Structure formats: structure tokens, C-alpha cells
Fold AAA+ ATPase domain-containing protein.
Amino acid sequence: MATPPKVNAAYTFNTFITGESNRMAYAAALEVAEEPGRTYNPLFIYGDTGVGKTHLLHAIAHALKASRPRILYVNAEQFTNQFVIALKNQKTEDFHHKFRSADVLLVDDIQFLSGKAQTQECFFHIFNDLYDNNCQIVMTSDRSPKAMSSVTKKLRSRFEWGLIVDIRPPDSETRLTILDTKARRLKMSISPEVLQFL
């Protein structure tokens, strides 16, 4: 089976810049990292590309890696590809076992399951097993569950069982802080005037 995406060492709660647009998602992700499987299960975070959803998934993984060694982070496209390979090789039981044995399942870009009926059915059963065993599930998407018309109603209903929170594009103050932080991390000196222009 393909190797799942690696967790980015730079994406932690400490490096996440909060502002009005993402404060609720940050707080929910932090709560999940502190009490996985107890509050906000599942946690569904949605918003445009580049607003910090993936960063929060990685931050949860970092925060939990000591106490929950069976953390599985995967993007939905890779989940689909692995499932197709398992079907072709008649290894679906191994595939299901891999995902059902996770303590924490982090799925990025869940919208990529849209229109893939068999993959959705598989994910539905994995979701139910994990949820029934109080395992934490966190998903990100570029749209809310209600806007996922090509996802089955029963799977969308699972997405809505917990907390759904959005991340909006950052306001100008938060954008400036993000740019300044990135510049300092890259050891670049950029004046406030230039940052305003960016």
C-alpha cells in the first residue's frame, strides 16, 4: 500500500497564527488534541484553499503523537487510490483493518470522495467503526457538508454529527502577521510598508 503523507514538522499549534477568521477552528482543534474522542467528534473544518485547515490537522497529529501512537493522516485522494489498489489486489480486508485500527483519523480534503460511491461506502463503514469505539475523526474540506451534493446523504449526516466550523480568509491584520512570521522564519527582513503592499 502507498505511504501516507508525512506530517509537516512546521505545522504545530505554536506556529498557527490566529485571528477572527480562524479562532473558532483553532480552539476546536486544540480541544480535540487535548481530549480526543470526547469533544467535537467528528470535527469538520472547511474553508477556501490556503486558510490553514491542513496546518490544524498536522498540529493535532503533533500534539497527540506521544499519547496516541496510532494516528493516521491521509488526504481523501490518497484514501481513494489506496482503496482502489486494495480492491484490485483483493486486499480490502487489510485496507479496512489499517484504517479501523487508528486511534485518530485525520482526513484532508474529504471533498475528493465526491462522486465515488464505492469509496464513500467504504469510508462510511470505517467512520462508523471508529466513531463507535470513541476514536477521534477530523476532516477538512473546501466546502461544508451541506454543499457536498455528490456525497451520499448518509455519509454527509456522519460529517454533521460533531462540530462543523469554517475558516474564512484572514483579515488584513492577520494576513500581515502571517506574512511577517513567514518572512522572519525565512530570515528575511521586510519593512511594514512592503508587507502592507503584499
